[in-house]
Design goal:
It contains 62 helices and 16 strands. The chain is of the alpha/beta class. α1 packs across α2 and α43 packs parallel to α49. The radius of gyration is 38 Å and the shape is globular. The relative contact order is 0.04.
Length: 1427
């Protein structure tokens, strides 16, 4: 007998259709013949139509497909239901485009078909099976249309849903009634019952889609009727559901025969029950607090719980994953999820007078069920554990949201527990439910857990049932540790019970050992192990080492994870742990080597890395062991990238902690860096390698022995990366700086380039005599953008500061680097038109001048050949910008540096420089800086001998303060090297007045030697300027002596160009001449009239900008300047609330509240509205910053007020405080009532009413403050100075944090809770944490464990209709942006999160492109804003 050929695949059919549309006659004819043979194949039409409606395919292929579809349908119409399904999908997609404008009668036509079918089947039955088919297909088509339209959010759909609601409900009622009549196990599988349940199923699906659409809009204006319709439907649906659920279980349990099993009736009834659950769950997710108040909700939740209870006691064949079982897994999943989220709403702490609060008896029963049944290990658990302990433990300890979608059902332990079935919901389902019950009903749960614990402690039996019961109780103790930590004496439990059980050699005790280790970790998270810390560490070390019969990989790996949690606890004490370093390290390294999976190895390496960080330099004696293990693991075959990254982190941690003792680790670190930069690994490991490289350099000591290998052999690689790698340019510049600080002369000496790199550079560079480093500087300067250019200039400036000109001047000229910078200054063209970049170039030139002014003059002259301009033109152009950009140098040290360099340059006697004296510009610079110095160092008269207010502008600091970009230098050896550079800086050590006097004398001598007429140039200087300078020189040295001797080099302040300096100093002067006396004295002064008038102007300026504000302050008055973006005004600090440091970090958070008088509030229309928005009836800026200034250091930082600026002038900030953060640390030290200078608001993003359907906000850490401000203005405008933002826009907030402890303070979370309750139709929130440090009861809402990945974001966007599913070829779909939904994504947070979500921030003058997750999902730059 001839075998039947396999039917063609979808790809084969598509290829034939494409060939049939070919212009090649031979190919087209052969394909047409092939299509003729396809016509007889069942289901062919569905594939052909799929080709026709797929827009991504070529048009000619689609046209050929629709022609073939027309030809095939008449042959196949009666043979298969797939034609109707395909047509329903096609109609729905067309409706999404044309309804209601081009297809207004679509709903009417479909309802007519439904009514006709309803009449023929139920009201006036004619017995025609075609009537049933027509009704079913009409409902199926309506279901597809509603699916498309609800996703598209068609505005008119609400009215349409309300119109079709009654007919559909009538159809559903008729079908369910007919289904229930005469129903028995014998009739359940009949064709009539199948038809009735199918019709009921699809009618209900249509109703659910419509009701879900209305529920999400029931609080929106214009949808007032929707809430009543949904409530009515929900109550009816609950009654139907409970009836059908009970009926189904009874029927299926009573008649599990082959005829029923797998029948269409069974399938549709199971699906139908599940659709109910989906509807209930969606309703709950959208608004949990409104859900519990819906009709019959309590009955629904308790019914679900009763099914869980029944399933836990049912025979195992009644609880399965497929629909044939009376208790399908998916049904039980929905039951647990709905029950869990309802518990929070019925909490007595949330609503103490709520009648819906669960009684104690119910709670006791639920806890008993979970602990005594649902948490018990099953046979399948134990079998999987035995087969692959590592894989089993990886699954057990993974925290995810899988419990929302899947429950693992285990076989029962019939041998030990009789016929009861253990439903494995331990992690995550049952455990999560138990945690929720403990959170909400802690007073009930805690005594129960204590009772269970005392019972199992008394048991000494080692039989398997006893062990499993004890394991379940210990699991409950660990999961409820946040509630029971004050009731259970854990130290006593460890000492009297757990330590002994952990060493029991019995085979069955491996279950308890694994649980004990896990329990130690959970209690360590609660920081409740201080009294038994040493015993716990010793027990865990024993469990990690134990290879006996009573242990295995699952036990050892769990112990390693718990060991990590204990190291991370606040109670960890290094001195007491020192004796345990060696045994714990040896045990961990042995476990790494013996583990088979790379996931397991990586997990234990994480423990070792934390151990290194925790013990600090105590790890020095054990570096060799770790290095050997890293080397062996690195060289193993098939090592994956995550494991390599973990190994690199081990070396990084050693380098950070051992510092000057890290030299023995240099060879392995160098090898790892070189391998990671190789072509094989560089794409995935380059960032990790560069981090190791930088950390190693910062913690290295200079090496003077050429026979000892060190990191200088990698210097050529750094130069090459500086030349070619723009992505890592900022970090590479810091690496270059670290090399310079380590040994500058060695960096700059000839022959530092390896032969290979030298060949590469020789090919690239036209001037071989130019130093490779300077060529790399030039390349980076030419190609980099924005801040990276500043990084390049910072590295070059440090080089000039550290080395004599003989080591860099010639190479700087030969490379063209100096000439390029010079012409960019002259032409006033900074990278990205950034004036601050030009200021950095001028700072570099100032350093060159201070190092060797003669060399600078020579470099300018030599550049004339490169630039084809005269030396005179270049010097004049440079000096023009030197004077012009002086005011852009706003920080004090840089201004003094320019003043010093001006004098040094003049001392060369250069003809052009001397000639420019006539402009008086050099003198004006000197006078400005000396004036600032004089006022800063002036001592006010008075009993307390206070410094003048302006001292704050130049105030000396006691220690070196790192700029933000170098905050990672803290606690490294490089910090000391930078401090040494700072201490010897000419800015600190050079007295300005004496230096200028000396250089003026040298200038006169040098000019005379050069044949330049200095006296003529001096005679042209403005007489008043000369007089002022002479007056300054006549002051005693005590007034104008050494500036900043033994003082601090300030971190640069960040001011907008030309922004006026603060006009309101913090402290008023006690005494001083009044305004009128000052004017009279100035007019009486024996001087020419011009000088006297200048003195009067100076008095006026001093009075209005210095004295008057203090006079006002004395009289209880404020200045009239309102809060504005350019000028600083004074606010009052009202509150500082610190938080404990982050786990594993020295960073922490503070909540800061400050206020300004209400009359200084900004005009919301004038200040907070953009020009474009103001002219178009726009809304206030949605997000803006307030700049806060550290008036000690004159540094400002932008912070986002959580609630914006409130009507009473209050602003609340949530600020992350880093160890090296200038302003955040300064604020944290202030006292309540202290004045703080602020300016703003500075807009970050604004919008116009209803500009977007959806705004999706993605935040990391303190980035949530921007969105808290936006939401506050949107939902609580009455307390905000801006106008109300009434809009139909829906807001979705996704925020990510490292742990619940690092989540926002109550000032943010309470608002979010309020928005969720009162604006559920307009606000959706999801929180994500990397790890769950604790399950404290003050966590205000559920969080998702894990990072915000593509799947999580995609799922949220699909729920909101922002993404839609689209065919991606045959048999597959992909998510694409919904073209009918206007959306804006706002991303704010650390750069890592911003890059992962939306790609790196674009540099200025470059076209933006969206990368990351949003780029993968197809969103464009107009839809994404990085804040």
């Amino acid at each position: 007998m001839e075998a039947t050929p396999d039917p063609p695949t979808a790809q084969q059919i598509y290829q034939v259709i494409q060939d049939a549309a070919s212009q090649n006659h031979v190919i087209a004819q052969a394909a047409s013949q092939q299509l003729e043979t396809f016509k007889t194949i069942p289901g062919i039409f569905a594939t052909v139509q799929a080709v026709a409606i797929e827009r991504n395919l070529p048009l000619d292929a689609r046209l050929m497909a629709i022609i073939q579809f027309k030809n095939i349908v008449p042959l196949q119409w009666r043979r298969s239901q797939y034609v109707a399904q395909a047509n329903a999908i096609a109609m729905a997609k067309i409706a999404r485009i044309d309804y209601p404008r081009a297809w207004p009668d679509l709903g009417t036509r479909l309802l007519e078909a439904v009514h006709t079918g309803l009449k023929a089947v139920y009201l006036e039955p004619n017995g025609d099976p075609q009537s049933t088919l027509i009704l079913f297909r009409a409902l199926s088509t309506l279901n597809q249309v509603l699916k498309e339209l609800t996703i598209a959010k068609v505005p008119i759909l609400a009215a349409a849903v309300l119109t079709i609601h009654e007919p559909l409900l009538a159809t559903y009622s008729q079908a369910t009634t007919a289904f229930g009549e005469g129903l028995s196990p014998q009739t359940l599988a009949s064709i009539d019952k199948v038809n009735h349940i199918r019709i009921a199923h699809y009618a209900f699906k249509c109703l659910v889609k419509g009701m879900t659409f209305l529920w999400q809009r029931s609080r929106v204006k214009g949808f007032e009727r929707a809430e009543g319709a949904v409530e009515s439907f929900f109550g009816t649906a609950v009654n139907h559901f409970i009836t059908l659920s009970q009926l189904r279980i009874q029927l299926f349990a009573a008649n599990l025969n082959p005829t029923l099993t797998g029948s269409l009736t069974q399938i549709y009834l199971s699906r139908h029950i599940r659709v109910y659950g989906k509807f209930f769950r969606k309703t709950q997710i959208f608004s949990a607090n409104r859900f519990v108040n819906l009709p019959n909700c309590r009955e629904l939740v308790l019914h679900y719980w009763s099914r869980v209870v029944a399933a836990s006691a049912a025979p195992k064949n009644e609880v399965q994953k497929d629909d044939a079982a009376p208790y399908p897994v998916k049904f039980l999943t929905q039951a647990l999820a709905i029950f869990k989220d309802s518990l929070a709403q019925w909490s007595p702490t949330r609503k103490p007078n709520n009648q819906e609060t669960l009684p104690k008896e119910f709670v006791d029963g639920a806890v008993q069920l979970i602990v005594t049944r649902l948490l018990l290990l099953s046979e399948e658990d134990l079998e999987e554990w035995s087969v692959d302990p590592e894989e089993w433990i990886n699954t057990e300890e993974s925290d995810s949201d899988a419990w929302e979608y899947e429950i693992r059902v285990r076989d029962s332990l019939h041998a030990v527990l009789g016929s009861s079935l253990t439903l494995e919901l331990r992690q995550p389902c049952a455990e999560r439910v138990l945690m929720t019950i403990a959170n909400q009903y802690g007073d009930y749960v805690t005594p129960l857990i204590q009772t269970y614990l005392e019972q199992v402690r008394a048991e000494t039996s080692t039989d398997l049932p006893s062990i499993i019961r004890k394991d379940a109780v210990y699991c409950a103790v660990g999961r409820c540790a946040h509630r029971t930590k004050n009731s259970i004496n854990f130290d006593n439990l460890v000492r009297e019970t757990l330590s002994a059980e952990a060493t029991n050699p019995a085979l069955t005790y491996r279950i308890i050992k694994r649980r004990i280790a896990w329990l130690f970790g959970k209690w360590a998270i609660e920081n409740n192990i201080s009294g038994s810390r040493d015993a716990i560490f010793q027990t865990l070390i024993y469990l990690i080492r134990d290879r006996g019969e009573g242990s295995d990989a699952a036990v050892r790996l769990t112990a390693a994870s718990a060991f990590k949690e204990c190291l991370n606890s606040i109670s960890f004490d290094v001195p007491s742990f020192v004796p345990l370093i060696q045994p714990s390290l040896e045990a961990s390294l042995a476990l790494i080597m013996e583990s088979e999976s790379q996931d397991a190895k990586r997990r234990v390496i994480g423990t070792v890395n934390l151990l290194i960080s925790s013990v600090g330099d105590e790890i020095v004696p054990y570096m060799g062991q770790i290095a050997e293990a890293v080397t062996v693991l690195w060289q193993q075959p098939n090592v994956d990238i995550p494991l390599r990254a973990a190994l690199l982190m081990s070396v990084i941690k050693i380098m950070q902690e051992t510092k000057e003792h890290s030299t023995p680790m240099a060879p392995i670190a160098i090898t790892l860096i070189q391998e990671c930069l190789s072509p094989i690994l560089n794409v995935q490991m380059e960032d990790d390698a560069v981090e190791l490289w930088l950390v190693s350099l910062r913690n290295s000591v200079p090496n003077h022995d050429p026979n000892v290998p060190d990191f200088f052999q990698l210097l050529p690689n750094a130069v090459e990366l500086l030349y070619s790698n723009l992505d890592l340019l900022g970090t590479i510049c810091q690496i270059i700086e670290s090399y310079l600080l380590l040994d500058c002369s060695r960096v700059l000496q000839a022959g530092t380039v390896s032969s290979l790199v030298a060949i590469v550079l020789t090919v690239r560079w036209t001037q071989q005599q130019a130093g490779p480093l300077h060529q790399a500087y030039l390349q980076a300067y030419n190609t980099a953008l924005g801040l990276n250019v500043k990084d390049v200039l910072a590295a070059a400036t440090l080089m000039v500061q550290l080395a004599p000109s003989s080591m860099w001047a010639e190479a700087m000229h030969n490379s063209g680097f100096f000439a390029k910078m010079l012409i960019s200054v002259i032409q006033d063209k900074a990278k990205n038109e950034n004036t601050l970049v030009l200021v950095d170039v001028l700072q570099l030139f100032a350093r060159i001048i201070m190092q060797d002014a003669g060399v600078f003059v020579q470099l300018v002259a030599a550049s004339s050949t490169h630039l084809k301009q005269t030396a005179e033109y270049l010097m004049n152009g440079f000096l023009d910008q030197w004077w012009a950009k002086f005011d852009n140098a706003v920080d004090a040290p840089r201004r003094k540096l320019i003043a010093l360099a001006t004098a040094e340059l003049l001392a060369t006697g250069n003809e052009v420089v001397v000639g420019r004296l006539s402009s008086s510009e050099p003198i004006n610079i000197w006078l400005d800086v000396m004036g600032e110095l004089k006022e800063a160092l002036n001592v006010q008269a008075g009993d307390d001998n206070r410094e003048s207010p302006l001292i704050l502008y130049w105030k000396a600091q006691d220690e070196y303060i790192l700029p933000d970009r170098l905050e990672d230098v803290n606690e490294t050896l490089e910090l000391k090297r930078r401090e040494e550079v700072f201490k010897h800086d000419s800015i600190r050590r050079t007295p300005l007045k004496e230096f200028i006097q000396q250089k003026l004398a040298q200038a006169q001598q040098a000019a005379t030697s050069n044949g330049v007429d200095f006296q003529t140039a001096w005679s042209k200087v403005d007489e008043s300027a000369k007089a002022s300078l002479q007056k300054e020189f006549s002051l005693p040295m005590s007034k104008l002596g050494f500036f900043l001797v033994d003082a601090e080099y300030f971190a640069p302040a960040i001011y907008p160009p030309n922004m006026p300096r603060p006009t309101s100093p913090p402290e008023p002067p006690k005494d001083g001449p009044g305004f009128s006396e000052g004017v009279k004295e100035a007019l009486r002064a024996p001087a020419p009239l011009g000088i006297r008038l200048l003195a009067v102007a100076s008095v006026l300026f001093a009075y209005y900008y210095t004295v008057r504000p203090f006079d006002d302050a004395r009289n209880g008055m404020d200045t009239s300047t309102k809060l504005n973006p350019r000028t600083f005004i004074r606010s009052t600090l009202n509150l500082i609330t610190p938080s404990p440091p982050e786990s594993g970090s020295k960073a922490s958070h503070i909540v800061v509240r400050m206020a300004i008088p209400t009359r200084l509030l900004p005009d919301s229309r004038a200040t907070l509205v953009s020009a474009e928005s103001a002219t178009e009836g726009g809304l206030p800026n949605a997000i803006y910053h307030i700049y806060v200034k550290d008036d000690d250091m004159q540094v400002e930082r932008p912070y986002t007020p959580i609630h914006g600026i409130e009507n009473d002038g209050t602003m609340t900030f949530w600020i992350k405080k880093y160890p090296g953060g200038e302003v955040s640390n300064w604020i944290s030290r202030l006292q309540r009532g202290r004045p703080v200078e602020i300016r703003g608001p500075v807009p970050q993003w604004d919008w116009k009413k209803n500009e977007y359907d959806e705004i999706v906000m993605i935040a990391g850490g303190t980035g949530i403050t921007a969105f808290s401000q936006l939401l506050y203005g949107a939902f609580l405008p009455s307390r905000h100075v801006t106008d109300s933002i009434n809009s139909n826009t829906h807001f979705t907030l996704l925020h990510c944090h490292r742990s619940p402890q690092q989540m926002p303070p109550k000032e943010v979370t309470e608002d979010l809770e309020l928005y969720r309750h009162e604006n559920a139709d307009r606000f959706t929130e999801h929180a994500f944490v990397d790890r769950l440090d604790s399950e404290a009861d003050d966590i205000p809402r559920d969080v998702t464990l894990g990072t915000l990945d593509k799947n999580a974001l995609e799922r949220t966007l699909i729920e909101r209709g922002i993404l839609m599913k689209k065919n991606a070829g045959f048999r597959s779909t992909r998510s694409v942006p919904n073209p009918e939904k206007s959306v804006m994504f706002l991303v704010c947070g650390p750069e890592g999160l911003v890059s992962a979500v939306a790609g790196p921030r674009p540099m200025s003058n470059t076209k933006d492109s969206i990368g990351g997750i949003l780029g993968q999902l197809g969103f464009n730059p107009s839809q994404v804003k990085r804040l």
